[in-house]
């Protein structure tokens, strides 16, 4: 099976979509598949081209048995709605030479196109129209919905055009895969047939990420002691999470020198958070860069409480990828989720975290106090059990490979 994975993010990016795409491609290559990836120069979540890739343009490299075709793109220093659109279209334009060559080269049996951005489907649609084969649209994030609900794009005409194009591409693919039940329901509401939808959740390797005692965590390396009460937010520092709330919560604990708020990550909102923390004289807030994957268990083990934050307007549009690692590490997660969403329902059903209302600072403080000073042992055990039972990497990727094999024998019209 010759597979082309098309997405803007890929390894060696450490967080988000690039992490999962990289693990999927490497796994498929290890099964003997001929795997190609068409992607950008790595830039996320720092929004800066990684140092090893600076001054490069179009080139191909082989990473862990995967042929990775890189293209340049515009990466804004400050991310705005307009600049993000330019960023995405610059990537789309830069892939044109690859697609022209692909039409006249050996055929790809499967084209797996990852959104966001949704309009990457343009060239897979044209490729399928000329060469045939299996084309799957994989939805990691419903980008247009998020842009609308978060107020990033307010022009109704422009939104209607984008929703129309999104629906067009989703209907033309053989399948639409996505990562949560909530997103499946949202895709169904767009007029996509239920027979087209395929469940392909994000995963975690519980043999790589697992519970560790605090003594083996990164506490000492990062300058903390075992007696400290640590609230950890690790991951992308973007707009969907409403991370200003962390600083306001930290201000409420200024009098307790044992409570530390640790923010570990990168993203477009990091500089703003650092500035706000300095202006508020918050000596109990500490910033660190993203840690390498091999240190993830040790990083997660340092926390008494993990924050998984989203704004209420982002409900059920994304399933936070950071939660899978927290669960595998047997962490106690404080999750902001609205009742009735997939995220709320799964955390509540399996009792694997503390639920609070999004953008409700009083409820957030209640949850933090419970997580730091209450008994969280049941949450931690339930979290690890859930990861082992439902999120195992090998199990999920084996099922995905079987689905690909089934699709190969279906009519492709």
From TrEMBL:
Gene3D superfamilies with a match to the protein in the record: Glycogen Phosphorylase B
Pfam families linked: Glyco_trans_4_4 (PF13579), Glycos_transf_1 (PF00534)
Domain Glycosyltransferase subfamily 4-like N-terminal: 15-203
Keywords: Transferase
Keyword Transmembrane on entry: no
Domain Glycosyl transferase family: 217-388
Protein name: Colanic acid biosynthesis glycosyltransferase WcaI
Annotated source species: Sphingobacterium pedocola
């Amino acid at each position: 099976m010759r597979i082309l994975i098309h997405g803007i993010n890929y390894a060696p990016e450490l967080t988000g979509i690039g992490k999962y795409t990289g693990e999927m491609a490497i796994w498929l290559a290890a099964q003997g598949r001929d795997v190609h990836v068409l992607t950008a120069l790595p830039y996320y979540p720092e929004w800066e081209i990684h140092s090893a890739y600076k001054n490069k343009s179009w080139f191909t490299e082989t990473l862990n048995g995967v042929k990775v075709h890189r293209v340049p793109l515009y990466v804004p220093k400050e991310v705005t709605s307009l600049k993000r659109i330019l960023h995405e279209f610059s990537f789309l334009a830069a892939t044109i030479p690859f697609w022209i060559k692909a039409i006249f080269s050996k055929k790809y049996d499967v084209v797996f196109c990852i959104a966001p951005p949704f309009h990457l489907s343009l060239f897979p649609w044209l490729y399928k129209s000329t060469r045939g084969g299996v084309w799957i649209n994989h939805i990691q994030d419903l980008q247009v919905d998020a842009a609308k609900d978060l107020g990033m794009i307010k022009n109704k005409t422009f939104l209607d055009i984008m929703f129309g194009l999104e629906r067009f591409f989703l209907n033309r693919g053989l399948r639409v895969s996505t990562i949560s039940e909530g997103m499946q329901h949202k895709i169904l509401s767009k007029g996509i047939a239920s027979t087209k939808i395929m469940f392909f959740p994000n995963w975690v390797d519980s043999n790589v990420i697992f519970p560790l005692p605090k003594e083996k965590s990164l506490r000492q390396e990062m300058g903390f002691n075992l007696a400290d009460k640590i609230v950890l937010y690790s991951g992308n520092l973007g707009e969907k999470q409403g991370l200003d709330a962390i600083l306001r919560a930290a201000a409420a604990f200024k009098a307790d020198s044992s409570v530390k708020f640790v923010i570990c990550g990168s993203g477009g909102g990091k500089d703003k958070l650092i500035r706000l923390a300095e202006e508020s004289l918050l000596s109990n807030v500490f910033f660190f860069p993203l840690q390498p994957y091999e240190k993830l268990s040790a990083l997660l083990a340092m926390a008494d409480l993990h924050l998984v934050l989203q704004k209420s307007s982002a409900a059920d549009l994304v399933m936070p990828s950071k939660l899978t690692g927290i669960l595998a590490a047997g962490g106690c997660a404080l999750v902001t989720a609205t009742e009735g969403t997939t995220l709320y329902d799964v955390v509540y059903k399996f009792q694997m975290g503390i639920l609070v209302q999004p953008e409700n600072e009083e409820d957030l403080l209640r949850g933090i106090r419970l997580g730091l000073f209450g008994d969280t042992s049941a949450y931690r055990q339930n979290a690890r059990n859930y990861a082992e039972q439902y999120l195992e990497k090998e199990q999920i990727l084996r099922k995905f490979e079987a689905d690909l094999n089934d699709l190969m024998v279906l009519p492709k019209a």
